[in-house]
Design goal:
The protein is built from eight helices and seven strands; from the N terminus they run βαβααβααβαβββαα. It has two domains: 117 residues, Rossmann fold, CATH 3.40.50; 70 residues, no CATH class. β6 and β7 form a beta hairpin. The protein has 217 residues and is of the alpha/beta class. The structure holds iron/sulfur cluster (2 copies).
Length: 217
């Protein structure tokens, strides 16, 4: 899931300066779960910006699988409302925002309602946790299925570093050292031998951006 955080209203209003009629677009998947671009969040934003003198011409919340896949259809369905607007405010991830821009036929300003933070998982308390950085060269088989690239602040491939103290991370003492977690997991799995293999530097050329997988002909 892509984790987002709504921008401060003050920043949104600054970008909307001089544009009074606004169409809102959310996302029925990740942004709904993050409470940044679901239907309720869109309605709250509508109230907030209307109090500031804007007119919300309409809104849509593209549903599963993802705003990026559904946006074309939603833009077509709402064409008239969008044409009557000065601007579109997208309350979704950066992928969704760019998809709106690329699929929009009308010449309208598109604005960013959310900051995109990371790819994350949700835990039982409702917190979002970053667990994978999409490095393109997964090492989880060697690390007890715990990602050191993402969960160790130094992204160490051979840990722990000398800073771990009683199982806690030197960068944040409230967090467990990821490499101690990896050690414990490998021990449980009877795979401690994996720690003796020095892992070579990763091939970060696989992270060269922009990455793409071309559709086969
Ligand atoms: S090693 Fe970590 S960052 Fe890379 S793909 Fe695997 S889980 Fe994701
Ligand atoms: S203490 Fe552990 S988690 Fe923290 S930076 Fe060092 S190896 Fe990484």
């Amino acid at each position: 899931m892509i984790i987002t955080k709504q921008k401060e209203l003050k920043e949104i209003l600054k970008h909307l300066e001089g544009q009074s009629r606004v169409f809102l677009i959310g996302c029925g998947e990740c942004s709904t779960t993050c409470k940044t671009g679901g239907e309720d969040d869109i309605k709250r934003m509508k109230e907030l910006i209307e109090k500031e003198g804007k007119t919300v011409t309409g809104y849509c919340v593209p549903a599963a699988p993802c705003i990026a896949a559904k946006v074309k259809l939603e833009l077509a369905k709402n064409r008239k409302l969008i044409e009557s607007s000065d601007a579109i405010l997208v309350m979704a991830c950066g992928l969704g925002i760019q998809s709106v821009k690329e699929n929009l036929r009308a010449e309208k300003a598109v604005h960013v309602g959310c900051d995109t933070l990371f790819m994350g998982a949700i835990d039982s308390s409702g917190s979002f946790l970053e667990k994978c950085s999409a490095c393109g060269d997964c090492v989880l088989e060697l690390t007890g299925l715990i990602c050191p690239i993402t969960r160790c602040p130094k992204s160490l491939l051979n840990g722990p570093c000398g800073g771990q103290d009683k199982g806690k991370c030197e960068v944040d003492k409230n967090r467990d050292c990821t490499w101690i977690l990896i050690y414990n997991e490998l021990k449980k799995q009877g795979k401690l031998g994996l720690l003796k293999e020095i892992k070579a530097p990763k091939d970060y050329s696989k992270l060269t951006k922009p990455r793409e997988i071309r559709a086969s002909a």
